[in-house]
Design a protein that fits this description.
The protein is mainly alpha-helical. The protein has helices at 2-25, 32-36, 43-52, 59-71, 85-120, 125-139, 142-156, 172-206, 209-216, 221-259, 264-273, 277-305. The chain contains twelve helices and no strands.
């Protein structure tokens, strides 16, 4: 019953999101038919374009037509590129997912490691430095950090390309060179968030009764930290991590634009400028669906990390 209720909740959320996405899209200034007409601005041409893409129909009918296509797997047709939105997503989404995965891996390595070390040595110099660095990471805008890194790493030092993208199937090393800098820029803010929450969760767990009991029994500190403290501290961090990974997909817009990475972030910026409604709707709906699925994965990870939620003995 809980599973059915959760599925119904996800379906209702996606339905409401589809209404919001479609409704807000109509508030964008400008007429896509006028933009698509190019130099030929004759009323006949504009009317033909509006009729072809059903822009002359009432908004409710447009929404129902679009929603029916989505339920059949048809996300619409790009008015600008004359390609289906599904095909464009299949091309662009893997690029953004790779960027987000690399950024998240960097964030986990830096953020969680710093948070654990800071929690093991509270109020020490290491703790203070980690807190200051984390605050800086939260404060610096990603696009500004990206521009600085391009000027330093690419222009001044010439270590990495300033922009572009190489497929990992064509040249794995070239792909790494083009993606490592935007991934680092995108992952710094998430690393700061993970560091602060990991430190807070670890401090709370390390001060708990069962950890003190384990230490009183003479259990090695390494085993206490890895087996008992870290696993329990990960429970709130898992949810945060799932939400932050979903935020990476949306937050990649500026980073992809700065580094000219051809992912869904750059795609949606170009589509907004070109009034390509179908692509904007498809990208936002796809991102929202991934975000909801990540929350579901986080809930399932809760059950794995905390035996008490499964009705088992935590010992």
């Amino acid at each position: 019953m809980n599973a059915l209720a959760r599925i119904a909740s996800i379906a209702a959320t996606l339905l409401i999101l589809s209404m919001i996405i479609f409704g807000l899209q109509q508030l964008l200034p400008g007429d896509p038919a006028f933009v698509l007409a190019g130099e030929d601005k004759s009323p006949e041409t504009i009317a033909a374009i509006r009729a072809r893409y059903r822009l002359d129909q009432p908004i409710v009918l447009q929404y129902l037509t679009w929603l029916g296509g989505v339920l059949r797997g048809d996300l619409g047709q790009s008015m600008r590129l004359n390609m289906s939105a599904a095909d464009l997503l299949r091309q662009k989404l893997p690029v953004t997912l790779q960027l987000a995965a690399m950024a998240f891996l960097i964030a986990i390595v830096i953020g969680m490691s710093a948070g654990i070390v800071a929690a093991l040595k509270p109020n020490s110099m290491v703790d203070h430095v980690a807190s200051v660095v984390g605050l800086i990471g939260l404060s610096i805008p990603s696009f500004w950090l990206g521009i600085l890194m391009i000027m330093l790493v690419s222009v001044q030092l010439g270590w990495l390309p300033a922009s572009g993208y190489v497929s990992p199937f064509e040249d794995p090393l070239g792909n790494l060179k083009t993606m490592i800098m935007p991934a680092f820029v995108l992952g710094t803010g998430i690393a700061a968030v993970l560091m602060r929450h990991t430190r807070s969760a670890m401090l709370e767990v390390l001060s708990s009764d069962y950890v003190r009991t384990a230490r009183a029994k003479g259990m090695p500190e390494r085993k206490i930290v890895l087996k008992h403290a870290l696993r329990n501290a990960l429970i709130p961090v898992v949810t945060l991590g799932a939400l932050e990974f979903g935020r990476l997909l949306g937050g990649s817009v500026l980073t992809e634009f700065v580094f000219t990475v051809p992912g869904i972030g750059k795609l949606i910026v170009d589509s907004v400028f070109n009034r390509d409604y179908a692509i904007v709707q498809a990208v936002v709906l796809c991102s929202a669906t991934i975000y909801i699925l990540l929350n579901l994965i986080a809930d399932l990870a809760y059950l794995w990390l905390d035996p008490r939620l499964r009705g088992e003995d935590a010992s």
